[in-house]
Amino acid sequence: MVRVCTLPFRLMAVDYGADLIYTEETIDFKMIRSIRRDNEALGTVDFIDKSDGTVFFRTCDKERNKVVFQLGTSNAQRALEVGKMVEPYVAGLDVNMGCPKEFSIKGGMGAALLTQPEKVRSILTTLVQGLSIPVTCKIRLLPTLEETIKLCKIIEECQVAAIAIHGRTRVERPNHPNHNDMIKEIAQVLTIPVIANGGSKEISCYEDIDKFRNECGAASVMLARSAMWNCSILRPEGYLPLETVIETYLRYCIQYDNPFTYSKYAVQNMLRELQDTIRGKAFLETQTLQEICAIWYLDDFFKSELTRQNQARKSINFEVKNGKTALPPSADHVKIEKREVDGQIVVEMPIQFIRGNFNNADLPKMLLNTHIFRNELDGPHYSHSVVDKFFSASVVVDGVKYASTLREKSKRYSEQGAATVCLHALELVGKTYGFSPAEGARKYQHILNTNANVKRQSNESNIQDVKVEKEADWKKRKVETSNVKQTNEVSQEENYR
């Protein structure tokens, strides 16, 4: 659930009935080098990576009694240090001993611990004895039932609160069947609660969750992919329409300033095959959280919440400084500052290069090169600096240096940002250039908006010519409780189309 189980998704899971919610796995070294910040604007506690300034763990009071911090570690003392850092803010700490990914294995974490019982004992015992919150762990099956039971007995002796068991081995993948029978055998010989995991392929409704639990003889069930696809599977009353789930998730993303890339990734996993519809393709074109929200008609909510957050932060450019959450609509909303440094004239403005805002023929460096060539100017001369893994670039044209005050994650993008500043300073482009999508840069969003406008202008209840319905009830619907299972996906897809 990397990039999915951030605060917005966890809060939605709580709303839909989850008893416990787990964070993404966080590596001990990353947590140890972080700094904690009370975010008064959002009402959260943030842990920030000092190397790049990103928030990688954000939590709030609403989830305090339900959130379990998932830790990747291979060292007992580092694990305890992390445990002490998060202890006041979480309901429990879980050690991931089942991740089969290469980065975990090479670091001696995750599934690498399955064959190191004494290290497992050391880590868990240290945590149980050193923390006041419950400690759990998650494992995968070993090659044989006997080996797995032996390891589980060692874990039980460490007095952990529970053990989660994924019913596949380290080398098996989701296409392999989950060994429910082996989980049941293990649960029968342990005295601590067993949490069954790995059954998403056989869970398509709320009733299937309890069926899976019974087949595994477990105390509870841990869901990943089936909840990621439609989190309302957690509701005893049944599924909600997918668009309702997405809207709920996006509202939390706005409220808690979730990173654009994480938000988009989570919605992609909800849409799945619906990404091939017009709405889905328009969504794939998005480059900011604001654009995603527009597709789900949350424009007004986004703007009002952003205004509230900015007032709390007392920083008008916060949404820009934090990356691709939103950009001002034009250069009129930012300052172009000119100053002299050691005899060098420097022109700066805050703008971030968003590739999707440009057509191939109007990229900033291309336009600047053309201007320099036609006017026989000196340049362009680019230079770079790297700060905490982020790039800053400047470009000198005819003796004047131009630079964006915002950093980029790539050298190429930082150069495009510097070129954009030059184009605006020389008034070679319009005020919205780089701030808003160029005409034609959002093909499917344009189709979606055009068809929506046609529908609004028509008084007919059913417009045959319109392939994409805006579904006016998305804006003013009162969601009716639905017990519809995944078999209704066909009709749901028709609504998207």
In short:
By secondary structure, this protein is of the alpha/beta class.
How are the SSEs placed, and which strands pair?
Layout: H1 7-16, E1 21-27, H2 28-32, E2 34-39, E3 44-49, E4 55-59, E5 67-72, H3 76-86, E6 92-97, H4 102-106, H5 117-130, E7 135-141, H6 145-157, E8 162-169, H7 180-189, E9 194-197, H8 206-216, E10 220-222, H9 225-229, H10 242-255, H11 260-271, H12 278-284, H13 289-295, H14 299-313, H15 318-321, E11 337-341, E12 344-349, H16 364-374, E13 381-387, E14 390-397, E15 400-404, H17 411-425, H18 443-457, H19 473-476, H20 489-496
Helix pairs in contact: 1-10, 3-5, 5-6, 6-7, 10-11, 12-18, 16-17
Account of the protein in words:
β11 and β12 form a beta hairpin. The chain has a 7-stranded parallel sheet. A 5-stranded mixed sheet has the order 11-12-15-14-13. It has 20 helices and 15 strands. It is 39% helix and 18% strand. The chain has 497 residues and is of the alpha/beta class. This is DUS-like FMN-binding domain-containing protein. InterPro entries: Aldolase_TIM, DUS-like_FMN-bd, DUS2_DSRM, tRNA-DUS-like, tRNA_hU_synthase_CS. Keywords: Flavoprotein, FMN, Oxidoreductase, tRNA processing. Its cofactor is FMN. Pfam families: Dus (PF01207).
